[in-house]
Amino acid sequence: MASAAQICMMYMQDADSSDDETYAAVISMLLDLFRASIRRRTYLTLPALVSRTDSPWIRLLRSAPNKSFICATGFTRPVFRWLAAILEAQKPARANPNHGGVRSIGPKTHTALVLHFLGSMMQGKYLQMLFGLPPSTLSRYLREGIKLLRTGLRSDPLARIAWPSKVRHGLISHLHANRVSSGRDETIWRSRGCTGPDVLQHLWLHGRHRHGHSEAR
Amino acid sequence: MFCNIFGFMDGTVMDIQRPGDADLQELYYSGYYGGHKINNVFVFAPTGVIIAAEYNCPGTLFSPLVLTPFFDAGSFHDVRASQRIYQVLLDDAKTPPPFKLAADSGFQSRLMACKIATPLKENQFSDDPDVQAEQKEVQRRIVRVRQACGELSSSKSIYICPSLEWGMRALKGSFPRLKTELTWDKHHRRAIIELCLLLHNVRVRLVGVNQLRNYYLPLFVQGQESPDYDRVMRVYGLS
User: Has this prediction a pTM greater than 0.80?
Assistant: First the structure.
């Protein structure tokens, strides 16, 4: 674009100013180039975005019912706050607090940005409109958020991908065998005296506190 | 035979952007699917939690993962992506002998027959009516394991596996980003997939929105009122 415009200007300086046809042709060419440059501009700029403090996400966070919150983020509010705390804990502290400006978004918005990215198929420009962030900022926070949240969750027992221990093998298969034999009729459980599920529940739901250390890595 | 199944294994393919490098393009291009893909294998527990995963493997036929001790384990791409899961399965210290996984017919293998229960393919039934009847009974049971409830809709090889599909649906339904074209950067792509898996486990354990879990969890709750609760706790050494 710049080089084409420079060529036009040079041509105009060399040409006779009284030549109206040449002048009109150059103006037309410049207008075409300007129109083409608009089409190539496929990103949103800051004036086109809503304020970060009054973005649709902030409105959702502040006033949405719990069901809507789960629908948007995939998690309940307590779990979301827990995820935000994990992300915040993983952020490296700035060596010099006075160096650098204020962060564009807080930990909750940062977590929500990652969850919206993973939990939807929307393009970047819609995320930008949802959070009021320009493309470069959004891309930077997204990449950082994925990295931080992944690192934080890796070591957490509630998120861990772990092969079951021997005890759990037995309990799970016990549950599964009875589930298959009973089919939809769950009352068969009681008539057969199957008592595995309670132990399973104890293990799977509360394993984090009592038996998390016994899991095979 | 089917009382020792402790999980469901299935593979899935994800689209990726075409890498810029020609060698990488060749590595990730899958002729079977006609595009640049990655292979992933996930193992779901009946509670819906992912207990093992092998992901971000190149979609080509001759992936580096083929060069493992279990190369002859099968003929499908999923199998090649699951070699490390096979190693855990074959290790008796981690997977005691009676226990096995349920998978689809793509995971059939003589080597892994004692560790993976798979349904038969259509051309694998015996011609002997008696043997065939027995095989179909086994088939019906194994499909029921995977189907969790309901009956076999056809005697042909149209075998659906809702338990597996429930798990995969829970993952891709909760995180639709996995259904889009993922980035060509393998490190960033790996981070995205891994984070989805970790969040899936969090979601299953804390939020509880999961079909597998909802299907099995009522049974957990029922057992709490049982008079044998303490006895079972003693048997398993938990009291």
Answer: no
